[in-house]
Amino acid sequence: xxxxxxxxxxxxxxxxxxxxxxxxxxxxxxxxxxxxxxxxxxxxxxxxxxxxxxxxxxxxxxxxxxxxxxxxxxxxxxxxxxxx
Length: 84
Hints:
Layout: E1 5-11, E2 15-20, E3 25-29, H1 45-48, E4 52-54, E5 57-60, E6 64-66, H2 68-74, E7 76-77
Antiparallel strand pairs: 1-2, 2-3, 3-7, 4-5, 5-6
C-alpha cells in the first residue's frame, strides 16, 4: 500500500504539492484531468483552490476526489523550492 496524503497545497498552473505520511513531497499535475467529466468544474480556479485533505487523499467540493495511489504514483518528487 502506498503512503497516504497528510497535506496538500495549491500551486500555480493547476499543480498540487502533496505531502504524504512518509514525509515525501510530490507535485501532481491536475491539468490532464480538467477535461474529464466531473473534473471539468475544476477549470474554475476558485473551485480548484478549495482542495483539502480527506481520509488519506484529497477532496474538492462536490465530492470530487483522486485516489491516493494515483497521487503518489503519478506525482513527481518535489524539490524544496518547488513547493511554496
